[in-house]
Amino acid sequence: MGGRVPRVFRNFNGENRASREISKAKPTPAPRHPTARLDAMADSPDIKEEVLRKDDRFLTLLKDVYVESRDPPVRVKDGGGEHLPCKQEEKRLTKLGHLEALDVKKVPKGKISIVEALTLLNNHKLQPQIWTAEKIAAEYSLELKEVNSLLEFFIPFTVQEFPKETKKAIKSHKPKQLT
């Protein structure tokens, strides 16, 4: 209902309003800038002749110009660039178990791979007395503060399956038998 009322007022006397708008005097357009009339001047033969004429003085000056270019000597970069790290990062082999094909083989010290993170979170969840934060930090070469944050803020998902007898079943009345 709310959309019909404005539509009625909008469409009321539409033809008369449209004809009134069409019959109004059109405003005169603004005058064009003088540079827009260059196309008319370009058609004149005097301008064409001036454009196509060669100036001997300019040609002799152009012949006197000689440009010689040389490439700067190539510098060989030595291994100690500013943007390169001074020493090579220490790497450690990952502890993957049966998921070796899914993850990287070497990880920098102080970091863990995704598979390792999921493994250590799951181990801590299943056996928190054995897999303490200190043991995880020592095992994976991590800082204790980071391990505590990891164990506090990241929790692996658990899959729970409900037995069939506890599911709510829709009980309907007997279906009608066709005769």
UniProtKB/TrEMBL annotation:
Pfam families documented for this protein: UPF0240
Q: Which gene encodes it?
A: Ndufaf4
**Native source organism of the sequence:** Rhagologus leucostigma
Residue segments, region Disordered? 1-44
* Family that this chain belongs to: Belongs to the NDUFAF4 family.
One GO biological-process annotation of the entry reads:
mitochondrial respiratory chain complex I assembly
Organism placement in taxonomy: Eukaryota, Metazoa, Chordata, Craniata, Vertebrata
Please name the InterPro entries in this protein's record.
NDUFAF4
Assembly, in brief, is:
Binds calmodulin. Interacts with NDUFAF3.
* Protein name as it appears in the record: NADH dehydrogenase [ubiquinone] 1 alpha subcomplex assembly factor 4
Q: Name one GO cellular component term.
A: mitochondrion
Q: Which domain of life is it from?
A: Eukaryota
